[in-house]
User: Fold these one by one.
Assistant:
Number 1:
Amino acid sequence: MSRIGKKPVAIPSGVTANIDNGSLSVKGPKGTLSLGLSDLVTYQLEDGSISVQPANDSKSARSHWGMQRTLVSNLVEGVTQGFTKVLEIKGVGYRAAAQGKTLKLQLGYSHDVDIAVPEGIEIKTPDNTTVEISGIDKQKVGQIAAEIRRWRKPEPYKGKGIKYRGEFIFRKEGKKK
């Protein structure tokens, strides 16, 4: 039994959900998101909540159950609050600047790295070493954050690079004299 799947997803006021043609669409104050529904799981809209149940007792249906409930929960949370990831840049001369629909990174390469911001994602740089990525789709926010981080992952000796806020970097000692 899925502990996560058992809990229904509460729909707050101001949010509407609709199931039709094999997709669930959720509309809220921040926008509209939709999810393709799995045949292994049944979805029911009931008085202010969405419940997710496995369609049969097979192992694959039970394994999809909790994941599909989490995806539905992410839709509701995205259209009400949105998602944010914060990246921190550490290193001499490393900096970031948001310029319209592009993010310009200076990461010690011979050239600047320009990253195009996809539709539905907002990138802000409160200072030179902080990048805030926000949007309503959790998958898109996480994907663009991972693509930015991939340009200069934190190294284990001095910790230079791009890391998530709150991420712990295991540091190595270095040479002994």
Note: The longest strand covers residues 83-90.
Number 2:
Amino acid sequence: MTAFPSSGFLSEASDELREMLSDLASELTLEQGETLFEQGDEGDALYAILSGTLEVSFLAMSGRKLTLTLMRPGEVFGEIALFDSGPRTATVTAAEPSRVLRVRRRDAMGQIRQHPDLAVDMVRLAGLRMRWMDSQLNEQVFLPMPIRLARKLLHLSNLQDDPTARITLSQSELAEFVGATREAVSKTISTWKRDNVVEASRGGLLIQDFEALRELAESDLI
């Protein structure tokens, strides 16, 4: 039996709940480029990464795949599927050979029916997850768009093998990332371009002054 990581969604789980998940877990091996699940698939399992790196992506309105983040060993994801079998909101693919643990929803629910005390722990964890999602939503809604854009550009640069390389996204795709109009994103980038914070062209965007962009990302108001 491989123990489930005590991180992420499970960082405040009881020993009993983690032991239950570990007992139910099966190990999967993914080759580089292999898809674990796709955007729109029915959610049916919780996962934890044992080794390797997984890419989280979604399809933009243009039809192009956009990478949201990279997940590494110790990360737990897909937990919403334990409570709801709705469609996956993103695609998860192995960026390199990887090993993951999987616990299927039906198996977890079967154990909880037999041991109702575990349900209390699950409900508490669901509440913590909802609080985290609320904080993410508040950031998306209430933070000024330039701060959201600065944070997203820094995050995207960190996902690249070379953080100083050009970010090959259109301004329309960046607007999708930060929940803004293309016009608003274009106006902000024009200001940053004038101040030599970024260099922008049809081929994408290059961060010229990381320190200035970090200061923008960490400020309360712009």
Note: The chain has a mean pLDDT of 88.
Number 3:
Amino acid sequence: MSTDLPAGYELSTDPERLDRALVHRWLSEDAYWALGRPREKQERAIDGSLNFGVYESASGEQVGYARVVTDRATFGWLCDVYIAPAARGRGVGTALTAAVRDHLAPLGLRRIMLATADAHEVYAKVGFTPLEHPGKWMALGAQ
């Protein structure tokens, strides 16, 4: 998959290439939104989503992950975006987010949503903005 990742990194949507144990460790131990997530639940999430992995070109080691829950027609939810600490600060997260946006563009989705408590500037760089009318959105489940 072609994208504008920083030199030395590559992107893949091949779910077979994912290091599932690593993704689970990242999310369940280091991501505030998924702390304690059981491995079985993470496996189901991966299996039901469009997944993006970022890898070091030389070693093939996975350094980033994102997934999109989508019907591939009208809506997408970008979630579980994670960059390994050693790869942070190199533009990998912004490039991953841009690659997701570009991959989804041909689908003509009406809306792509995400939620973040701390990375607004990363997502703003690729066009995400706060909701104009957040009051009309509702949620079911844990807050």
Note: The longest strand covers residues 62-70.
